[in-house]
Amino acid sequence: MPRKHAPAFTPDAASASSVAGQPHNLPVLQAKMKRDPEGYEEELRQLHRHFESSVFLFQQQAALATTSSSAGGGEVAKELGDLALFLAHVAPFYPDDLADLPDQIGGLLDTNARGLPPGLREHLVQALILLVNRKIVDLEDTMELFMELQVIGDRAVKKLAFSHIIHSIRRMNQKHKNDTRNRKLQNIIFKFLQAEEESRAKRAFTILCDLHRRRVWFDERTTNAICEACFHPSSRIMIAAIQFLLGYENAEQQEDESDASSSEDEADKNPQILLSKQDVYKANHKGTVASKKKKQAKLQRVIRSMKRQQRKSVEESGSSYYSPLTYLKDAQGFAEKLFSRLQKCNERFEVRMMMLKVIARTIGLHHLVLLNFYPYLQRYVQPHQRDVTTLLAAAVQACHDMVPPDAVEPLFKQIVNQFVHDRSRPESIAVGLNVVREICMRMPLMMNEDLLQDLVLYKKSHEKAVSIAARSLITLFREICPSLLVKKDRGRPVDPKARPKAFGEVTVASDVPGAELLDEDMSSEEEGSDEESDAFDSDNEIALPSAPPGTEENMEGSSEANKCDANEDTNEEDEASDEDGADEGQDNSDNDSEEVDEELDDDSDMDADTDMSDEDSDDDELKESINGSEDEGSDQDEDTDEEDKSKGSDSKVQKRKLNDYIGELNAADASLRALKRLAGAKKAQVSSDETGKILSDEDFKRIKELKAKKEAKLALAQHGLIKGVDTKSATFKMPSSDQLSRKRVDPLELEAHVRRKMSKEERLAMVKAGREDRGQYVARAAVKQKKTGGLSNKQKQHKKRMPLAATRAKAARSRQEKKQQRKRSGNQFRGRKAWK
Fold it and tell me: Who contacts 33 (Cβ-Cβ below 8 Å, separation ≥6)?
């Protein structure tokens, strides 16, 4: 926008200056003008003309190169600053008279910003900010001026301009995003960022990073502009951009985030813990006091561990995960360009390591193929290399399943040969094994059987860090490829025939994750209802053989042909079973069961037309087959009863045949129930395939609840609160490729459990920390002497009066000892006497 400079000096302006030169109380006049704008229009015009003449006089003084203190220059600057602030305050009440005020103040700052006194410059900037806040002038028109004001060298003005830009853009996007205005402002800042001058680019980059961190400009355009700053000619801008990309996740989240994002974060930070009422009741009400305390403590540990796991999963692989590198438009070009600059740059070692980490992070996030990157890393893979764990963490992050194994194999062999050998230090061996495990987790094809068996032998090491690293490698390959391990190391894998995917193989998801839990829940509910109905049916069926006496008369009216057929069938079956004996008993039993099933199927098909009709044909057939079997059973009962009456057989024989018949009937009934359940399961599966392809919101909520219940049950089983749950299969859960690409490899995790030798200062600090809660050393005897309480237990026991019998026994014992002593002393030889 073109700036209008102050008008030339005229006699009218001079007269206005002399009239308005009289001292005015500007705050009082400002309050009166706000209350009655129309009554003070003349005073406003006089003050406005006085402001214009003051601007003209100041420009004349600046042209004559006079100092601000000489000839009243300081007074002119102070008066000009006060007038500018006064007019800016009353500008909303006089929009026509003060329409050119923003251009006058902006033109003065644009042309003479560096030559203005600091106080006047600050007052003019404050007046311009006030006009922008009152919406008298747009932020787009003054954006370039505020960007220029940050590089003139005045710290107070730079702080004012920076805070004004940030707060204005935040306020503009507080209720809704104004994309048109945001795009105009972004274009201005991007132009300053691409400038070769370091100071301008630094201020623009600082504004972009601050707005991005506050989630005001959280779009791909801003993210790509920040990433493009990595290629700025100035090394300071490049380092600042790389540090922002690496440390973005550690930046503190500001309190002024949007309501939607804050609600999502709260929902993610409040995990869903579903424990059954029975487990909570057992922990609080069952058992002794001590056992209940233990159960309650275990329950609290379960809840804490589940909350920690759910928060970790949400942070690493949830929807709240964010990194600026994920929104790169040309990730391959960005990685190649930054890698070429890394190869040519002569920066210090720390800067090159930061560039290396950004490249590795980009390769891992976007599954890029940059084959020259791995030989470059191979040159620095040495145990004595400075910050070698950071370098190895970058190498791990750059590995994914889309990289050809041949490209990474030299680097992999270099790591194994340099770190894992018998003459290496335990710290190096532990780090090497951990790196091998992380690389094999991302690229399982790198490992062969001989190398794995050699590395696994380190599980017998006496160093804790080495043995833990080797056992973690065993745990990994139990999951992804147990066949590479020897038999004693395989344990009990979940899938003994598991194999890693071939290079380029992709697993396509055919269903919604967690939908099988919903199917299992539905099937369990159906089985529960089936069991209830089966229990009801079985009660009726059990009552069938013990029929009332009135039914025996009807059963006697059966035909003689049926009796003969039944007798022949039973005789043939008995002869067949006697002839086969022990050689073919098992085969005959299998054949008989198959024949029984076939006969039941035939009978169910033949009698399907005579029973009641239902809505589903499968249920009709099953019910009809059950009814048919009951009819056959009743016929056979009649036959056996008539035979028993006619032949006059004993009651034992009748009881045996009835028991055999009841067993056969129960076996047939059980097979029919199994068929019914199978048909119901198939029908449910068909219906779920046809109508369950689109899940509703309630289904997804149910899946989430079932997952939480399963995790709770597993956690309770691992802590020993419930039994009957297999916890071995859940000891290690193999993450997916996307989860591994989003996971950040911490260099400190690669050297976990490594005992680092402390320096003398650290040891002294630890010793002094242990003495804080301890008093001054005092001798034990002094403590006893200063004791002010009663006697000790030992002293009381010594002074305790003994019983009378013990006292007499002690006295008798003392007399005997004295007598023996006198007797021995009388027999002693005391030498020749000197006299006789």
Answer: 40, 43, 44, 90, 93
